[in-house]
């Protein structure tokens, strides 16, 4: 009998704003410096909340948001800030 596996999707487990913020915070800590993990986390959080609504709240087109947060995306910082605001998240800095 062959085992069947399903692909893990973090978006399925991000139910509350606190969980979303904790997930993004952990990704900030673990990102290699290229922003790929942060972009992927924002993608997961946006999908958890509903990509169409997030795009609307951010003032972006849905397709543009998918492209910006996709695996080959390279969003501008202004896009990241618009998305974070639409998600109800804030960017904070602390001393290393």
TrEMBL record:
Named from the GO MF annotations, one term is: DNA binding
For this protein, the record's Pfam families field holds: dnstrm_HI1420 (PF21716)
Could you tell me the superkingdom of the organism this chain comes from?
Bacteria
Indicate what this protein is called per its UniProt record.
Putative addiction module antidote protein
